[in-house]
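Re: that chain you flagged

S.,

Sorry for the slow reply, it's been a week of failed gels. I finally had a moment to sit down with the sequence you sent. For the record, here it is as I used it:
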Amino acid sequence: MRLADRPLAGVRVLDYAQYVAGPFATMLLGDLGADVVKVEPPTGDAWRHYNPHAPGESTWFYALNRGKRSVTLDLKTDEGRAASARLIAGADAVVHNMPPERAARFGLDRESVRTANPRAVWSCVTAFGTEGPDAGRLGYDIIAQALSGLLMADARPEDAVPRRSGGIAMADLTAGLLTCISVLAGVAGRERGQQAPGVEVSLLGAALAVQVQRFVRIGDSGDTADQGPLTAPELEHTARTTAGADRLEPYYRCYRTADSFLALACLNTAQRRRLLGILGLDDPWVADPQAAPADEAERAVRAALVDRFAAVFATRPLDHWLSVLAEHDIPSGDVRLLRRLFDDRQVTVNGLVQTVRQPGVGPVQLLGNVFKIDGTAAPAARPAPRLGEHSAELLGELPVTAGSTGAPGPTVTAGATAAPGPTASSPPVAHLSPRHTSDASDAPEVPEASETAGTPGAHAASAAPATPAAPATPATPAAPATPATPAALGTPGTPAHDAHPAHPARAAGHSPPPAAAPAIRELLDTAERNGA
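Prediction finished late last night. Pasting the structure tokens below so you have them in one place:
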């Protein structure tokens, strides 16, 4: 499907966000056809420098910024802010993750954007919202998960401290989805004659949203015991409670088969009864397996029943169970490793993997377009942009306004850096029409925002260096050099999520026994690499 045929064709989104939430949102908008212009400081989005495989080159950045164009601006200078205002004047939406004070200084607060362009939808990602005692606090994914209770959702008895489940940035990514929705809603409302709205999304709200089914309280207990920070006994109690509930649920869990592992999901009584018939078992609690046991005797009986389920599943290989369960319309599946999904047919035929040619790197496989439009999941039109790669074309198309220098773009300011050109060996990069811009992102000298706001703690600091090094400029450009552009935008509006903990060295004595099936050895190896 051509870009011109996608639903958001002709819509321009400026992305001034850094790290995860904002860039993920604008990447999705780009998949729907929007022209996403990434506005960056000369040092670039801080995510370019996180876990880099080369100076300024990071797979983490590639994953969230494919399909965009990059322009570098220094929002600390008059020229940079003037150019930014001219970009905003031609945009349909502006996304950022800066704290309110910085956004106002850079002309990215709601009123400044509305003045520059009344039709531009404004969407801001904060850490904890713009009101309340934590309104000005910087925060990253792990902080939002901690303050929202999400960090305790998967507490395990062996945990000495709370941890992120799977190391996944659930608050960041959910905030990105909500931000994407906010822009879509704003554009739709504007087209019906409503004023272009300003919409705020917070990491705190996103972290609560993924717990929506649990975040319910009947009545108002007013119990002061439910206040204050987490204590070690509470961590232990929560872990035991969580593990106890998991221990008694036989219908929605994984089992070990004779050669691998099986994921089972029976969410209604009819499915559960059919499963009992297949296994030759009886369960008095089949109608409500989540009910709390009446006493310890009942707990023991139900735990023994789960063990009987496990014993039966262990008698036959995975393929047998998948076949039998499918015949009886019982949802089940095998357990796969993420790295194997690049070649998985179900993933590839639905366009969920795509290959881009990253300049200076070569082919890179990453997440494809998650939207199928009229039966087609279109690939990204371009890879993640090099820093400032499209400054010339984007700034060159801006109209000359009264008081400007008369040049197509802002004049070069002291400290400005020229955007690096591709190396001679880099593959050519396809360019969208000038109307197709990407996000603008503001790279911080000192992290001040949130995917949201506040001074990052040790975890956040490790994820985003205070002053990222500028990417190395290739020696031999293969394309016309991009004119020097103003230095980087100020500090990023939205802090990145915390760094993933380093994988501990493989612990001695944890190797699977030689007789273990390959799938089981892989599970143990993966668990050890992840620090389990």
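What I noticed first: The chain has a mean pLDDT of 78.

Talk soon,
D.
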